[in-house]
């Protein structure tokens, strides 16, 4: 387990005290747990997936091998929930339920089912066990004392299949490169955000700044300060606002690197906080109707052919906020498209300028710290959002 302070990272959710990295893998004794050797416990209980010889199937994972929990075994859930309970008793309020997508296709499972078909079901079971623990923990506390939001629990995960949103609480998009790339960088995080949203994953987000850095003699990907700051601006308008140091922290600019990055982080956290009231509405709407918080424009403007050509370029928050993130290095302005079919104007939150021509494009200035964001003129949601920005001193 890796614990990192998280109170300021998931700002306004008011839930986790710690982010805990939790795997469906059980590591061998390269880094034994100080209290318990979970690998040996799981091996003794015979709840690890097996190879064709009946031995624990060892999966290479970076610098060490791991065994995978057999989530089809009837004893696995009870044992794993006991591990979760121990974490919660130690003060953990939230965790990253990582992996889940890597079940090998030649394992032997307790259930006897074909591992090829079980491969897609595995992340659903992984989400279900974590969610069941949440519900059981909540039920055990019912009636004992007045509900305290600080005592809530949350987990987020990256693996998924058809029924994963039924069990998962939050999702994130895995490990993007620390780059401006469209295929696996900041642009791809927007593509993933919007495509997953229309696939049932209403509460998704990415690591601020990306995750994968490369530091080889001829290939280097290091997170620049500019990329980090633009990613902060982007994620201030997703369901979760969460940083990550990345796989090579020393190669990456961090939110705590200097006064400039820390101040920008605080500014974007206020941006995120300013639409908390609307996010709460959209989360409820997602639970009732399945609509994602962050939406591709064609969901609300299906007859506008121009929005069909948009990919990572811009997106809606609900119906009242339009975000046009800066996703290219060195750019200080972006092209915004205002869809057809509106009866009101879009208002730029920083300048107050109104854009009345629907079905048209306009270049908008976007210095660092002022991501192009628009609200529907006269919208109660938009006005409240702008009022909050003023109250936070950033408008």
From TrEMBL:
<dbReference type="InterPro" id="IPR013780">
    <property type="entry name" value="Glyco_hydro_b"/>
</dbReference>
<dbReference type="InterPro" id="IPR052990">
    <property type="entry name" value="Sulfoquinovosidase_GH31"/>
</dbReference>
<dbReference type="GO" id="GO:0004553">
    <property type="term" value="F:hydrolase activity, hydrolyzing O-glycosyl compounds"/>
</dbReference>
<feature type="domain" description="Glycoside hydrolase family 31 TIM barrel">
    <location>
        <begin position="35"/>
        <end position="260"/>
    </location>
</feature>
<dbReference type="GO" id="GO:0005975">
    <property type="term" value="P:carbohydrate metabolic process"/>
</dbReference>
<feature type="domain" description="Glycosyl hydrolase family 31 C-terminal">
    <location>
        <begin position="290"/>
        <end position="379"/>
    </location>
</feature>
<comment type="similarity">
    <text>Belongs to the glycosyl hydrolase 31 family.</text>
</comment>
<dbReference type="Pfam" id="PF21365">
    <property type="entry name" value="Glyco_hydro_31_3rd"/>
</dbReference>
<dbReference type="Pfam" id="PF01055">
    <property type="entry name" value="Glyco_hydro_31_2nd"/>
</dbReference>
<dbReference type="InterPro" id="IPR017853">
    <property type="entry name" value="GH"/>
</dbReference>
<keyword id="KW-0326">Glycosidase</keyword>
<protein>
    <submittedName>
        <fullName>SULFOQUINOVOSIDASE</fullName>
    </submittedName>
</protein>
<dbReference type="InterPro" id="IPR000322">
    <property type="entry name" value="Glyco_hydro_31_TIM"/>
</dbReference>
<keyword id="KW-0378">Hydrolase</keyword>
<dbReference type="InterPro" id="IPR048395">
    <property type="entry name" value="Glyco_hydro_31_C"/>
</dbReference>
């Amino acid at each position: 387990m890796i614990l990192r302070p998280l109170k300021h990272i998931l700002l306004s959710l008011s839930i986790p005290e710690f982010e805990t990295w939790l795997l469906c893998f059980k590591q061998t004794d390269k880094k034994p747990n100080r209290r318990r050797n979970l690998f040996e416990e799981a091996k003794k209980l015979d709840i690890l997936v097996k190879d064709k010889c009946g031995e624990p199937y060892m999966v290479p994972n970076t610098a060490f091998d791991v065994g995978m929990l057999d989530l089809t075994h009837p004893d696995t859930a009870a044992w794993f929930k006991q591990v979760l309970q121990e974490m919660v008793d130690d003060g953990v309020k939230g965790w990253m339920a990582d992996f889940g997508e890597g079940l090998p296709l030649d394992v032997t499972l307790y259930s006897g089912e074909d591992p090829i078909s079980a491969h897609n079901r595995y992340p659903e079971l992984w989400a279900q066990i974590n969610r069941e623990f949440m519900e059981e923990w909540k039920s055990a506390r019912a009636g004992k004392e007045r509900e305290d939001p600080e005592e809530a629990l949350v987990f987020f995960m990256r693996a998924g299949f058809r029924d994963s949103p039924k069990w998962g609480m939050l999702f994130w998009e895995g490990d993007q490169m620390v780059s401006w790339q469209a295929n696996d960088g900041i642009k791809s995080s927007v593509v993933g955000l919007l495509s997953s949203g229309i696939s049932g994953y209403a509460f998704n987000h990415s690591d601020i700044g990306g995750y994968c850095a490369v530091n080889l003699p001829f290939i280097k990907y290091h997170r620049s300060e500019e990329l980090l700051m633009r990613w902060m601006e982007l994620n201030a308008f997703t369901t979760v606002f969460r940083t990550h140091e990345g796989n090579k922290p020393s190669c990456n600019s961090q939110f705590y690197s200097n006064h400039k990055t820390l101040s920008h982080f605080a500014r974007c956290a206020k941006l995120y906080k300013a639409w908390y009231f609307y996010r709460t509405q959209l989360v409820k709407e997602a639970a009732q109707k399945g609509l994602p918080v962050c939406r591709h424009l064609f969901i609300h403007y299906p007859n506008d052919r121009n929005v069909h050509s948009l990919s990572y370029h811009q997106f809606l928050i609900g119906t009242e906020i339009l975000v046009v993130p800066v996703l290219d290095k060195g750019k200080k302005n972006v092209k915004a498209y205002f869809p057809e079919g509106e009866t009101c104007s879009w208002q730029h939150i920083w300048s107050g300028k109104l854009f009345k021509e629907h079905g048209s494009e306009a270049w908008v200035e976007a210095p660092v710290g002022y991501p192009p964001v628009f609200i529907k003129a006269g919208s109660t949601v938009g006005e409240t959002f702008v009022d909050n920005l003023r109250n936070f001193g950033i408008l």
